[in-house]
Fold this sequence. Notes:
The chain has 658 residues and is of the alpha/beta class.
Amino acid sequence: MNSVAPSDLPYLDAFPAPSGDAWRAAVDKVLKGADFEKKLVGRTADGIRIEPLYSAATPAGRALRGEAGRWRVAARIDHPEPGQAKAIALADLEGGADTLTISFAGARAARGYGLVADDVAALDTALDDVMLDLIRLRLDPAPQGRINALLLAALIEKRGHAPADLSIEFGLDPIGVLASHGSLGAPWPEIGCRLAGTIRALQERGFTGPFIAVDSRPYHEAGASEAHELGAMLATAVAYLRALETQGLTLSEARDAIAFTLVADTDEFLAVAKFRAARLLWNRVQQACGLAPKPVTIHAETAWRSLTKRDPWVNLLRGTIAAFSAGVGGADSLSVQPFTAALGLPDVFARRVARNTQLILLEEANLWRVADPAAGAGGFEALTQAICDKAWQAFQEIEQQRGEGLRGIVAGLASGQMQKALADQRASRAKAIATRREPITGTSEFPNIRENAVAVLAVAPVESSKLAPKGHAAEQNQGELIRSFVDGAGRAEALIAAGESLRAEPLPSLRLSEPFEVLRDKADALPQRPAVFLATLGPIADFTARAGFARNLFEAGGLAAPSGDGFASDGATDLDALVGGFKGSSAKLACLCGSDAAYANEGAAAAEALAKAGATVWLAGRPIESEAALNKAGVSSFVFMGCDVVETLERAQAIATA
């Protein structure tokens, strides 16, 4: 904590100058002997310390956007039917979006949907009435990404646009496709050759790119921490630099062909620091390559893994926090996941809210008016540097991977090392979710088992059989392919006949809330909702806290757990009324809820009476001193803060539905 010079703020002369020692003394007084580290110091998934207080800092380095000002508001074209996709795209543009991201069927970001466009005519329909020279176009990475890019180039040529006047990201990312889908149609050297050929063909027609999208979403959705997500991003970018240089492009040309897609998650401080770190790290890579650093284009998307199906309205808050973080962190463009995206293809309302989330941050909060507003803030500077250090270490570890003539991230994916590292991180986070050390509002905490359904479009996912037609063509000149597409050729005519391929175990795409959603779905599917009887001990004031805890816990698994005014009589518990209440509930599982004193005085008798009435008896809390006596009386399990809630709910469902 820095002292303020009296000359800066004279009115502060009447107060003693603050100091770190004085603050720590005040904190220790409040803690009353409690462990400072355990109470006030947090740690990220990468082990980075989160201090309760930071001093002001001078930025060690700043890497800003290439173009100051507003970030671009992006919306996704992912409806399978081109005509419907057009209507949605126009609504997004009229509603304030200035960037369209085309997710072709098969793209992971399309989530089972995606635009079905096998020729220029279908793509033309989807973009009919869209003024391509007034917006930015992006392609989501997808299998057959080369063909998607050439189809778009053919459409531009057919419409007569000057490519150099357009703003297009072509979304080529074969390494991302390998990570998310598990295979590429040729060995890596051949993939690099095709990638370079596609870039040259597009450049010859006047397109300026960027052509390659280094997409970190597959790693984030598979459980990557901030550092490992950035490490994978850097390793992927370096793999493309090597591949393109091998094919004759200069390092400068290869560098200029690359853009990034990063995930904005719901931890505001970490997300801002991650985006700032990404630019610093990329500058370091450029310097290591002997290049003068240039700003890279970064597209941000709010986190898929943070979305929930249950109480999806909370996703509005998640999206707002993530969008704020990406904007403050310096994203060039941003896509906010519609709040119903986990439930199906979002409708017009959900898309409008997603757009407006950004527009309010831009127009009303004016976030874009300050470049790097986190600069100089001690917490953000410390986190940015710590993430840089951890991410560089992760990048170096990936770069050391070797096997079967491959190196770096391609070797790591092909050998399974990347998958193993991400599985370890995923397991660690899953444990935090299951024990509610990382709570999910509306899902693992404060669930609503009587929530109303939200609307999504009644559109069936695209059949997988339509996504992978067999190739029959030989290797073709990319420029000639563009011309053939202009003349009406279809996607199938450009697919190269299958040969030797590169394979890897595909990374899973998971949302953090899924374990709880599985339990809720199972309970909702039953003819009658399973229930737990909350056996409250003593007066309301004594049992309310633990009854609320128990109800919250059980409802997270879809089990009803109503509680009333209790069964108190003359300051004690009327056991006959308690047992009668259990018998009238039709429940099979009873959970004792009361104070530690009530457990010591009445817990054993209540447990014994309930057990004789046929109940499986649990207890909310963990009264260590009376635990043995309670077990002997019939309490078979304890539910408490820090227990594995998912495992507990699985057992509770099994008992309640037996």
